[in-house]
Every structure is written in C-alpha cells, then in structure tokens.
Amino acid sequence: MSIGEIITIITFVGGIIGFLIKNYTLLQKLDETVNKLNLLIDQTKEKQGLVEDEVIKLNEQINLYGTI
What UniProt keywords are attached to this protein's entry (predicted)? Predict the structure, then answer.
C-alpha cells in the first residue's frame, strides 16, 4: 500500500467521522428545539385552561345576574 492510498483512506475515514459528528450535533440541536417547543405547548395549554376557567366563571356570573 502506498503513502497516497493510506492518505486517501485516512481522508475518507476522517470525512465519514466528520459527517457523523456534524449529524449528531444537528440531532442534538433538533432535540433541544423539540423539547423547547413541547414546553411552550404545555405552557400554552395551561394558560388556555386558565382562560377557559375564567370564561366559565364569567358566564356563571352573567347567568346569575341575568336571573335576578
């Protein structure tokens, strides 16, 4: 095996390793983004529930005053 072939193989393997590391890093960032989005979704659902509770209370007050 010549020096040129060894360098070619090392370069090829290095390229594959670099590609895998880059993809792993992108997957980590994607996972972080998905986790943040899930947290925002949960917070939004929680706030929506609070708003729905307030609407129910207001409707009850309106109905109560409407019957007086």
Answer: Membrane, Transmembrane, Transmembrane helix
